[in-house]
Design brief:
The chain is α+β, with helices and mostly antiparallel strands. It has eight helices and seven strands, in the order H-E-H-H-H-E-E-H-H-E-H-E-H-E-E. The mean pLDDT is 93.
Amino acid sequence: MSRTEHADDQLADLGVRRATSEDLRGLTATLTAAFANDPVWSWAFPDQHGLAAWWRLLIGSALRYRWVWTIDDYAAVSVWIPPGAVELTEDEAAQVEPMLNDLAGARAGEIIEMVERFDVTHPAEPAHYYLSLLGTHPSHRGKGLGMALLAHNLVTIDAEGMPAYLESTNGANDKRYESQGFRRVGSFLRPDKQVTISTMWRDPRKR
């Protein structure tokens, strides 16, 4: 049995499912732990309390689309924004600057600049699914669950004939995304110019 087949069996055993608002706490905990050492997000929020607050805003907003997925014990989580949708509502977007000022103080300007780079680089067309977040809880790493969950999501996206887009904030993950059909189409720098964030695109596949 291949690693992918083994991971697919694990997903079936553990129960991959769409998350609801009742899962917000568990989803936030997993993604906060998953990104604790990320080259971009650990720079933005060295304190995990700040990272958790930021993720809670993004995940809580995304849950309205019913395109947040998890495994029953939150071993892995994927957060998608569907075609034509926005990541934050107008009211939520208005909260970003005050929140970052509160969380980061004097560093808020740098973090706001980085968030703006994500927004400016994001393609407006063609319509696509946007993988906002994908993470595996550290206690479940090495089992292939994150990529298997991504592959599971892509089956549904392919069935709709839609492309997908993501930003890779950790270069170590680029090959993993490429294994699922994504290709690097651009990049931008962290505000201190020490880390490159890759932008990646995936055309739909016929199955």
